[in-house]
Model the fold of this input.
Amino acid sequence: MHMISRTTSAACKVQSSIQAVLKATTAAAGSSSGSSSSSGTVSSGNGDDTDHRKVDSMRVDADSSTALKHGTGSKAIETARAALLQHTGMGIPHIIHQVHGLYHDGPPRQLTSMMSFKQLNPEYIHIMWGEADVNEFVDSYFPALATTFRHLHLPVLKADLVRYLLVFTFGGVYSDMDTVCLKPIREWSSGQKDVSLIVGVEADTKGIPDWAKSYGRELQMVQWTFAAAPGHPVLANTFFRISKLLSHMDPANISVNQVTATTGPSVWTDAVYDHIAAQGLDWRSLMGMRSATQIGDMYLLTITGFSPGVGHMGAGTEHHPDARVMHSFQGSWTKQKPAM
Done:
């Protein structure tokens, strides 16, 4: 019998490795870049790190704890704007977006995630978006969506939607707060040129007849971590699909069972499928892939890329050279109750 669900044992195994991984990344960052700087840098956008321009960023210290508690107010939007303005040329801007406060997660795990990304990617601008920041962002950049957004009663719906909107608007990397960066982002695309979208496989269910019991799509894509250039068509397609679905739904009455198909990995995967089809490929031809591959401007990672250590479907461990990000599968959204 194939075990394709996110089992407790697999999650525990992944979580037990996080502290060891964080220690390793801290040591690596310390040896390569010294102590954390109070400012980040943004490259010229062409992969050449020799022409960095400094913009404001938060420190990995007590200030990070303060940001987790209170958010950063307008500074989040201002920092994102400044970082994007410094990005020239094509490609993915050196910006890392993380969102907190929509769920009631504890600061220790969130700090672990923040530190791993900041320490391995000192040339990137790390932006922590709190609940107030998220609301301000949607009000400012997507006013037509603001009322619907405020009425989404499950926090996961907002968390899903805003990740697409942030990366669509500013570009960069998005990653959930229960993830740990294992490899510098500059290495995620393995040196391939003209990459403006990085996506990882979450589930490759080839040969598993009962895949639909655990996943929304046969070849399902990760949306807890991804990277893209601003305005990327996959993000636009995802937003279009979600908007169309929400137009026929009451945002105050969407159930937890509807999340995956409404704002989660199913709708995201469908947009990626469309992008693959635009390159003349059928997504089914990618099932069983054993190495990352470039499809047009998209670099598609195997399940090991963003899901190492899960113990099924051929995923390698967090020590595998293909592993980029570790996900601890907290799954708190499945237990959510409507916001009051």
User: Anything to note?
Assistant: The chain has a mean pLDDT of 81. Residues 45 and 88 are 5 Å apart (CA to CA). The longest strand covers residues 197-204. The chain is about 40% helix and 15% strand.
